[in-house]
Amino acid sequence: MQILAWVPGPWEIAIVAVIALLLFGKRLPEIGKSLGRGIVEFKKGLNDVQNEVTRPVEDTKDDQSQPPTQS
Questions:
Q1: Where are the beta strands (DSSP E) in 1-71?
Q2: Which among 10, 21, 24, 45 is most buried, taking Cβ atoms within 10 Å?
Q3: Where are the domains of the chain?
Q4: CA-based max dimension of the chain
Q5: Is the pTM above the cut of 0.70?
């Protein structure tokens, strides 16, 4: 079974861009700015999650490298 994928060519992309410009002309900069902010916030969230996941692993490595103290 062959799976066909539709990949837009340069003409299709140009037509979609012209339609978007006609529909959202004045609001396009605002849309781009809010989209950029959303991407930045998403990346911050991913970094925070990654730091939370890796921090406990690093803490346990530090605890294991030090010999237990005897009292």
A1: none
A2: 24
A3: 26-60
A4: 78
A5: no
